[in-house]
Amino acid sequence: MLAFVLRRLAQALFVIAAMLVIVFFGVNVVGDPIYMLISPEMDQQQIAETARALGLDRPIWEQFLIFLKNAVQGDLGRSFVHGESAIKLILHRMPATLELAFVALFMAILIGLPLGLYAGLKPESRISRLIMAISILGFSLPTFWVGLMLILTFAVSLGWLPATGRGPTVSILGIDTSLLSLKGWQHVALPALNLALLKISLVIRLARAGAREAALMDYVKFARAKGLSQSRIIGVHILKNIMIPIVTVLGLEFGSLVAFSVVTETIFAWPGMGRLLLEAITRLDRPVIVAYVMVVVVLFVTINLLVDLIYSALDPRVRLTEATS
Amino acid sequence: MSEATLPTAAAAPPVEAKEETPFRRFARSFFEDRLATFGLGLFVLIVLLALAAPLIAPQNPYDLASVDVMDSRLPPGDVAGEGFTMWLGSDGVGRDLLSGILYGLRISLMVGAFSGILAAGVGMAIGLIAAYSGGRTENIIMRIVDLQLSLPSVLVALILVAGLGKGVDKIIIALVMVQWAYYARTVRGSALVERRKEYVEAAQSLGLSHARTVFRHILPNCLAPVIVIVTVQTAHAISLEATLSFLGVGLPQTEPSLGVLIANGFQYMLSGKYWISVFPGIALLLTIVSINLVGDRLRDVLNPRLEK
């Protein structure tokens, strides 16, 4: 087991290191950010001075070595635009994004699971077909377009919910959250639904497939023979068995929720780290781009690592086949 | 491309004695599904409209002389200063939206088609090389594929355009780099199966070159799943380009694809001028959904395991 954990850990670190190299050079090959930062009145000498202050006058490999030295110490450079530590900027915006992603995740389960169960248990009914049609649409509609439609319907036409911003936040244990007030929930509802839509479709499909399979199993027949009520069979016996794959997939998809929030946050003006990334891209603020990617990659690698380790703990076959191959 | 490859794909089970070519059999079973037929019809209509845009559009949105700022933000159905009716209204600078959408479709479809075909070519070549060479080469290639597929496509595309910059060519490069891995994985999967078959052995004992064995013998037999992915990924490419353009990091204002049109209308939407964003959005939606309907049916028809 220990060997397996160590090997997985080494692989994870290797992926992070590889991404560090790829992203740094990828972002640094194009455009000269100095022209975005200077004012038109500056003369040649002032431009050169600004470049020197930001370390942009040195050759690329030297910049990389400096970057690497700082990166090991947890410093990914200073934002050209804000003048602050890039990683601090990202981490400061992170709670808002994570809040949005978590609400979206719960929405996906709360909405997707009952719909999927229904479609799986009554595959021939009209409502089930409607549910499946909606889930196909959920997969093929672009996220940003659905976001626009949500704003148009619920904010502009009906006026029920606010279209932009995060609303008032309450601070608990140093983390700001908007989930403790009604107003905050009103603000989070539309962006979270927008972000959740893809995952709702995914949960519907998984739950439907799982329920169709489980309904034919012996333990369901046995429960029925025992005279259990239909709601108990579905709510306890079937649900418990199909939750395992759904929770696994959603756990893995959490990283993609964070990544997709770039689109949602921009549409709903949600002050998270996705919007920060977009601002950084349009302004060529390289340190912030690099820091964002590294934060997301670390998040991804960590989630994958945890899932791998939990799986190998639950199912020894995983690490045994690895060892022999 | 598809014309030549479909027969091989559908001919997997022994052909009946009836005088029915594999292609006809394929077409018949495709059109059995009404929804897919509708999707294909809609897609053909959209392509024709896009191709004929300069002939049928009431206005050339690139021609500044024909655009009048006085016409800006007219609601659908109003008559422009030049006398023609703007059935879908006008945008923020007075361009007819219907014309804008027809021209925008050209750009969106072109980007989708180019990146779909290029990604298929690059991905198939890499996948075949991986499957045929095996060993360390295969390991390295597949690790890269796995790594890329584990990251969400939007994020990879965003980072790529951050590095590449704006413009049609750069967007296509970014989309190809996002999508090649899907093809590589699929082609490698079917090529691994094909490689062990007797006709490959026969080709090798005839002394054919590696390149000829791979591209003339193995490749045609791996194409059926690729055709399905081409349709799905082209729809995905169109959607991704629209997303990037909407976010302001995709195509520039001089190349107004549907995504750029939607982005331009976004600022007016909160004040109730819905049409500037909504109509290009509907055009985008119909395009994506029609391609997906075709792709879904192709998946069913080309999958021999589902055939009766």
TrEMBL record, chain A:
It is a multi-pass membrane protein. The keyword Cell membrane applies. SUPFAM superfamilies: MetI-like. PROSITE patterns: ABC_TM1. Its main location: membrane. It is found in: Cell membrane. This is ABC transporter permease. The lineage of its organism: Bacteria, Pseudomonadati, Pseudomonadota, Alphaproteobacteria, Hyphomicrobiales. The chain crosses the membrane at residues 12-31, 100-121, 133-161, 188-207, 242-269, 289-311. Belongs to the binding-protein-dependent transport system permease family. It comes from Bosea rubneri. CDD domains: TM_PBP2. Keywords: Cell membrane, Membrane, Transmembrane, Transmembrane helix, Transport. InterPro entries: BPD_transp_1_N, MetI-like, MetI-like_sf. Residues 94-307 form the ABC transmembrane type-1 domain.
UniProtKB/TrEMBL annotation, chain B:
Residues 105-295 form the ABC transmembrane type-1 domain. The keyword Transmembrane helix applies. InterPro entries: BP-dependent_transpt_permease (IPR050366), MetI-like (IPR000515), MetI-like_sf (IPR035906), OppC_N (IPR025966). Gene3D superfamilies: MetI-like. Keywords: Cell membrane, Membrane, Transmembrane, Transmembrane helix, Transport. It holds the Pfam family OppC_N. It is a multi-pass membrane protein. The chain crosses the membrane at residues 35-57, 107-132, 144-165, 171-187, 218-238, 274-295. It is found in: Cell membrane. The keyword Transcription regulation does not apply. PANTHER family: ABC TRANSPORTER PERMEASE PROTEIN, OLIGOPEPTIDE TRANSPORT SYSTEM PERMEASE PROTEIN APPC. Belongs to the binding-protein-dependent transport system permease family. This is ABC transporter permease. It comes from Bosea rubneri. The lineage of its organism: Bacteria, Pseudomonadati, Pseudomonadota, Alphaproteobacteria, Hyphomicrobiales.
